Amino acid sequence: MKTVIFFINKFILLVLLARSMTAVVAKSNENSLNTFERMRRLSFITRGRGPTISELARVQQTEPGSRDLHVDQLASQYIASEEFNRAMVNFLSDIFRVKPHNITYNINPGFSSLHLRFYDLISKNKTWDELLLSTEIMMTFMDFKSGDRTTSFYSDIVNSAQRDTLKKYLEEFYIESIREKNPTTRSNDRSSYHIGRILETSSPLLAGALTDPAFLNRHPTSPINQNRKRAAAIFRIFLCDEMKAVVLPDLESEKELELAALDDGAAARESLAAAPDTVRMHANDKKCSSCHYKLDPLAKVYKGISNRLLPRTVPGQLTFRRKSGELIKVPYQNMQELAKAIVRQPEYASCQVRHFWNLFIGQDVPLSASVEKELVKQFNDTGRRPKDFANYLVRSPEFSHFPRFSVDTIDFHQVSGILNSCKTCHDKDPLIPSLDRLPFSKWGIPLIMRKLLKC
């Protein structure tokens, strides 16, 4: 009987909340989110899920004039939560284009050193620049799976004591793996992060994600590519300068082009002079040189790095043009100097602000120059700390303003991409219509759903 009463009360509460929220929507400005909409948006962005019924009920019971303050307090709680840490790990995984992994599992073999780096940055609210400036070595259970390869990766740049520590970490991972296989010793309150290990160093040859083995594995190189893929990833992630490779008519032309190198060396010019016409056309094409003049000097920082870091770095320079046309050339002697050169550029701060804007405000919402300037100022004023900047963004006017769409103005092609994503999981469900084309199929659909899906 108590169970029945509980569900009746829960249903009544939901009805009251729905009526209240509907009434608020009717009164709200066309482009301004009401309290409940803002709360729902806040929860999904910061925690990856909607607000609970009890949270909605507390807002409903709050005086209308105090509801915004209540939601602001919720924002601080959400951003301080473990769910926010995990949501931001997925956010950074998207930026770096690595597969996000759930860290709730005790041992997740897909939780890499790069994921641990993301989590450590967010959970401790470190400055965002630590993505580049950190000299810490991160190890996870994934390193245990690869045997002694991680220790070998760092062996040339760490001392004997640090090398022994890395080997000790591998032994601890082995012990953890035995514990997790035994139900009597398994711990359900420990995540992949807690099983991870972090070794502090002061090596100028380390530069956060730039020297993380997971980052290098994500962007492998070859004798033909010559680390340009890694250089392009750095420009895209940290300076928002995305470059795409030119596809040549055949593999031989591509090899000849890479051998020509497009740099200022005499050997390259000699090789280019004897190259096929298609290669010379590519080398002399302004569209091609507009990328290679940036990629080639930066790619040199990874020269000789394959399955281990080298005890020395090939000097190079960070080269690019500002929007004003000014040519920037910043020389560096090692990885740490390159990292510092990047974080000092105004383009770096603007780029990172745009990443946050895309998450908290929306990639489809235009970012004006004046707003961007103010956001960069706030980003710097908060010490470039992600939780502090997130707290500012969710209280900004832009967060509470969102374009509304009338159902009559939404075309099928505008939502077909979302529906295709639904189809990948629900394609074999007999109660779900075929959503990738019109009209929606109605086989196996209850009558009420048929009315809803009528086209």
Word description of this protein:
The chain is mainly alpha-helical and 455 residues long. The protein has a two-stranded antiparallel sheet. A two-stranded antiparallel ribbon has the order 3-4. A hairpin with a 5-residue loop joins strand 3 and strand 4.
Q: Low-confidence stretches at least 5 residues in length (pLDDT < 50)? A: 4-30, 261-269
Order of helices and strands: HHHHHHHEHHHHEHHHHHHEEHHHHHH
Helix content: 55-70%
Q: Give the overall shape, derived from the CA principal axes.
A: globular
Discrete helix count = 23
Proportion of residues in β-strands:
under 5%
Distance between the termini: 43 Å
> Order of strands across the biggest sheet?
1-2
Helix/strand/pairing category = mainly alpha
Most strands sheet = 2 strands, antiparallel
Please give the oligomerization state of what you see. single chain
Number of strands: 4
Radius of gyration: 26 Å
**Overall pLDDT:** 79
Which characteristics define this entry?
two-stranded antiparallel ribbon; 56% helix; two-stranded antiparallel sheet; 455 residues; 4% strand; mainly alpha; globular; 23 helices
Task: Describe what is shown at a glance.
56% of the residues lie in helices and 4% in strands. It contains 23 helices and four strands.
